[in-house]
Design goal:
With 226 residues, this protein is of the alpha/beta class. 45% of the residues lie in helices and 19% in strands. The chain contains 10 helices and 8 strands. The strands form 2 sheets. Strands 3-2-1-7-8 form a 5-stranded mixed β-sheet. α6 crosses α7. The longest helix is centred in the N-terminal third of the chain and has 24 residues.
């Protein structure tokens, strides 16, 4: 909702801005309550079942800073969906709006963290320079110059995907087994092996390797797991 749409709603229906935003907040709170209610029953719903799931990442460019400056911010959404029902088990974006982005960026600059190797940085989970944003961009995104978000913190994709599958594992802890279909994405393949290595070893998780890995990669991966 931008201010033009809100203004048109105010003019057409004779409503104040507070009334409109209160209604939006009401629908938001109802959606959260609905999700919370069904999440409480999720353990029972998946118990003893064999699930067919699909995972993928979607890449977006958000120009939420200065709309007159063509320097958007790349946002990545990772989702895992049940193929049979369409239920979305987990969906998250690589963005942190809860941490103090002003202090973190300030400390990053003052301690010259950018000059250190990533594994020596205090806040290695975040993208804290425009250079890093552009360096990690996909081929499509490299057609335009990118920048960090004006507010909040952009999370490194590896950390975001790790969080995604860690949460998915918690939600499916009572499932009998599940088949997971994912795109040919090196980041996803790396994280799946890290998070689900025990489930793969105990045949709780099956990944169709032909859709994920080459034959040589599949052989190497199976050797690691077993």
């Amino acid at each position: 909702m931008n201010k033009d749409i809100i203004n048109r709603m105010m003019d057409k229906h004779g409503l104040g801005a507070k009334v409109i935003y209160d209604k939006i907040n009401f629908f938001y709170e109802q959606a959260i309550a609905f999700d919370h209610y069904h999440s409480q029953m999720l353990d029972h719903a998946v118990a003893t079942k064999t699930l067919n799931l699909s995972s993928d990442r979607q890449f977006y460019l958000s120009n939420w800073g200065d709309h007159n400056m063509p320097k958007p911010t790349p946002i990545v959404n990772t989702s895992t969906v049940d193929n049979d029902t369409g239920f979305v088990f987990v969906s998250n974006v690589n963005f942190d709006f809860t941490s103090n982005y002003i202090e973190i960026n300030k400390e990053h600059r003052e301690k010259k963290e950018q000059e250190k190797f990533p594994y020596y940085r205090r806040y290695a989970q975040y993208v804290l320079s425009d250079d890093d944003v552009n360096e990690q961009a996909s081929e499509t995104e490299r057609n335009v110059e990118l920048q960090m978000p004006p507010k909040g913190l952009l999370v490194q994709q590896t950390y975001s995907v790790l969080a995604h599958y860690t949460l998915l594992k918690e939600k499916l802890k009572y499932a009998n087994r599940f088949h997971l279909y994912a795109g040919n994405d090196s980041g996803i393949k790396l994280v799946l092996g890290a998070v689900f290595c025990d489930w793969i070893a105990h045949h709780m998780l099956y990944m169709p390797f032909k859709s994920l890995l080459t034959n040589q990669e599949a052989l190497s991966t199976l050797m690691i797991y077993y």
